[in-house]
Amino acid sequence: MPLTLEQLNTASAAEALQLLDGVYEHSPWIAEQALAQRPFRSLAHLKHAMAHAVRTASTDAQLGLIRAHPELAGKAMVAQSLTAESTHEQSKAGLTQCTPDEFARIQQLNADYNARFGFPFILAVRGPRGTGLSKQQIIDTFARRLGNHADFERAEALRNIHRIAEIRLNDKLGAEPLLGNDVWDWHEQLAEHSDPGFAEKGQLTVTYLTDAHRACAQRISHWMRECGFDAVEMDAVGNVVGRYHPAAPGARYLMTGSHYDTVRNGGKYDGRLGIFVPMACVRELHRAGRRLPFGIEVVAFAEEEGQRYKATFLGSGALIGHFNPTWLDQKDADGITMRAAMHNAGLCIDDIATLQRDPAHYLGFIEVHIEQGPVLNELDLPLGVVTSINGGVRFIAEMIGTASHAGTTPMDRRRDAAVAVAELALYVEQRAAQDGDSVGTIGQLLVPGGSINVVPGRCLFSLDLRAPTDAQRDALVRDVLEQLGKIAARRGLRYTLEESMRAAAAPSAPAWQHHWERAVDALGVPVFRMPSGAGHDAMKLHAILPQAMLFVRGENSGISHNPLESTTNNDMQLAVDAFSQVLHQLAEEPRP
């Protein structure tokens, strides 16, 4: 019989320690410290208590934990001296059936890794779905992580140990994240569709109204119908809209959703997680034959990334009346206008104006999204409550000096445009850090016609400044531009500056943020509040509806807009559970 939380909570200290034996390899001190937090409110609470014990331990204790683990396909496996848990995991990944070439490759990687870091390579070989990574995935990850910085790799090893422990705890308690598995599988299946030129390379790219994009819309529509949505349609800009009707006609709707387009060679979860989590919740309501006092409208937004045309947030913007007709004449890289692409997709351009939503018909807008950053990952937290979506300003600029001979121009006579921009970049880094949650980036820096032996006379650069409030953003912009002027004047340079984008911050509506906070707390997970540095569809809906977001931890240090973007079935399950909690809260509120 599986272990229960009640057994664990009521057992003596010695018995409880024995019940958790084997969760963390040869390291009973972790369970011993975590058990001090009994009673555990949930399995998620137990997992976090154990991860917290490791996170607050000394570096020596953490290294001891890492070194307690065996090498993958190493000497302990050959000698059959692995723990039962490690034997099961390595066997499930096929490491006990390596070919001679695979075994030799892994042995060489083990040797190189130990020489570089001084501890064994740790990987949760059962993977983000719990069903196991392939040997090639294991070898590729091994080789990639050899290039990490030592401190980062130590943290990555610990994160993988926590995932191993999570799966072992699931096994002990007979806990299977069934809805998380379904959400994970939907992502995998949708990722089968990718644009030409990328699909052949195994890369995921889905841009607005391509064949792959339309195939995604069709598949999402099909799944929505299977989930029990009462009405599913594709609107005039390509959004897929599913509605689950309320218990009584005329009631308002909760709007939710995110985007299904991707960046080029991107990840599987950016945007799409916010579509599939509420879909899973609607499916469970439908299976239970349950209606809520409000309806649920899930919108799979057709475009957010601005990859094919220069029209970001096209899908969510149309719902608030922000569709610019001049966009229709934009051309993609192949010379195809947006108007032609829409006609080819069978969309009715004349109907776009009718998509604008009446706020009186909605309760608000909530969105679930992968974090796209390292914060939750580093804190060993599966969920984060978003306090505000950062406002931002972008500039395209040019620093202008004098190109001159690199050998004959003395250092104190130079008018070096590139060095001036480098100085500005250092100031941006320092100034943004003063606020704690502001960010500043010079992401493009180009010396046109530059030569190895010429002092740069021109430097083209971009400037991206963001902060959680407009006042904080504007103060950052003011200081950076003031410093830009001072640098140019001191160095005898001039510059041009063009503002290319300005977006207002979108603070979460306090009541809706509180809904997410209560939901996360109900799961037994610490409530962590954080701003969103990235833009989201929620910041568009913010113009007409109260909004709030929930972040889900990403694996691989939270990397996003990258094929390594990932999350686990367990974290997806928690997101579904949190969303269901919010629905329950809203259902209990008195309706006017």
Q: Explain this structure to me?
A:
The chain is an alpha+beta fold and 592 residues long. 42% of the residues lie in helices and 15% in strands. The chain has 21 helices and 16 strands. The chain has helices spanning 5-10, 13-19, 28-34, 43-55, 59-67, 75-78, 84-92, 100-117, 135-145, 150-173, 178-190, 211-227, 273-287, 314-319, 338-344, 375-379, 417-435, 470-491, 510-522, 537-541, 569-588; strands at 231-234, 240-244, 253-259, 295-301, 362-370, 383-389, 391-400, 404-405, 439-441, 445-446, 454-455, 458-467, 494-503, 506-507, 529-532, 547-552. Strands 1, 2, 3, 4, 5, 6, 14, 15 and 16 form a nine-stranded mixed β-sheet that branches. Strands 7, 9, 10, 12 and 13 form a five-stranded antiparallel β-sheet that branches. Strand 1 (231-234) and strand 2 form a beta hairpin. Helix 8 (100-117) packs parallel to helix 9 (135-145), helix 11 packs across helix 13 (273-287) and helix 12 (211-227) runs parallel beside helix 13 (273-287). The radius of gyration is 26 Å and the shape is globular. The two termini are 48 Å apart. 42% of the residues are buried. The model has no long low-confidence stretch (mean pLDDT 95).
Number of helices: 21
Give the uncertain stretches in residue-range form.
none
**Strand residue content:** 15-25%
Helicity level? 40-55%
Major sheet attributes: 9 strands, mixed
- Specify the overall morphology: globular
Number of strands: 16
How far is it from the N-terminal to the C-terminal residue, by CA?
Answer: 48 Å
Rounded mean pLDDT is: 95
